[in-house]
Design goal:
There is one protein chain. With 285 residues, the chain is α+β, with helices and mostly antiparallel strands. The strands form three sheets. A five-stranded antiparallel sheet has the order 4-3-2-1-5. Strands 7-9-8 form a three-stranded antiparallel sheet. It has three domains: 94 residues, Helix Hairpins; 49 residues, SH3 type barrels (Roll); 80 residues, Alpha-Beta Plaits, CATH 3.30.70. Helix 1 packs antiparallel against helix 2 and helix 6 crosses helix 7. The protein has seven helices and ten strands.
Length: 285
């Protein structure tokens, strides 16, 4: 019994079709494997390059993930095109989905981008005392979404990174020295130069007080009850608060020992006599 000629043709076409599909599938698998190998190799190279430049590990992992999935996405689209699936519509669909997701997560993505910028440009590091986004504290760490601060009274503060990028960041201890402004007043009856010498004498011998810039004591104004002075020693940032609080007590004690008076508000009251009576001596209090 012999099969009709048309059956031979159909079987032959089916064999050719299966062979073509098998070849296409094989090439698609090879593209995916090659894409994965390339993504891993590129990730190792990126990790080595960024690591040598002291980039934050969180940023290295984030950049490595973006690179890996980007290469795999390109390889996947190429593999789909190889097996005959039209990729134009798929790319358009993915782009539309990405746009919709981006609009829905606009705030989150802005914080993510801000985190990348903070980790890349390093306006502050762990251990720095900063003032920004309406809060002040010591930086404990930064990840891609938030920055953790510890307030001076021991509270944990998590700030979205986008809040820092939107405003001004003051890094209080970014430099090697910081100036202490110690405000004090002396009465008009006292010698300002003597008061200045007493304050500067307190700074002598204190290793925390830097010699360059040298400490100074200047007049900042004339108050209702006395002359306003400010003493300006320079110290290391981690000694700023200790020196400020300690020398407030030292200056008060030294002024008392040297007979220098710290003025307090005084008011003179004059009592006017009734009409037709002689004026009495004004009373002061």
């Amino acid at each position: 019994m012999h099969l009709p000629a048309i059956a031979y043709v159909s079987l032959s076409n089916l064999d050719n079709l299966l062979a073509d599909w098998a070849l296409r599938l094989l090439f698609a698998i090879l593209i995916l494997v090659a894409g994965q190998l390339l993504a891993r190799f590129a990730g190792r190279v990126l990790d080595r390059v960024l690591g040598s430049r002291k980039v934050d590990p969180s940023l290295i992992r984030f950049a490595g993930s973006l690179l890996y999935f980007g290469i795999m996405a390109v390889a996947g689209i190429a593999a789909l095109g190889k097996i005959g699936i039209p990729v134009g519509s798929l790319v358009a669909l993915l782009a539309a989905a990405g746009l919709a997701i981006g609009l829905a997560l606009q705030g989150t993505l802005s914080h993510l981008a801000a985190g990348v910028m903070i980790l890349l440009f390093r306006p502050f590091r762990a251990g720095d005392v900063i003032d920004g986004a309406g809060v002040m504290g010591t930086v404990k760490g930064t990840d891609l979404m938030t920055t953790e601060l510890e307030s001076f009274d021991g509270k944990k503060i998590l700030v979205p990174n986008g809040r820092f990028i939107e405003g001004v960041i003051t890094n209080i201890n970014a430099y090697a020295s910081r100036r202490v402004d110690l405000e004090v007043s002396v009465s008009y009856a006292d010698d300002v130069e003597r008061a200045r010498a007493v304050i500067l004498g307190l700074f002598e011998g204190d290793e925390r007080i830097l010699g360059d810039p040298a400490p100074s004591v200047v007049i900042t104004g004339f108050g209702d009850s006395g002359v306003n002075l400010v003493a300006r020693p320079w110290v290391a940032p981690d000694q700023w608060w200790t020196v400020l609080t300690e020398y407030r007590e030292k200056v008060k004690t030294a002024f008392a020992e040297n007979g220098i008076q710290i003025p307090f508000p005084q008011r003179e009251i004059r009592m006017l006599p009734p009409a037709g009576e002689s004026a009495d001596t004004p009373a002061a209090s």
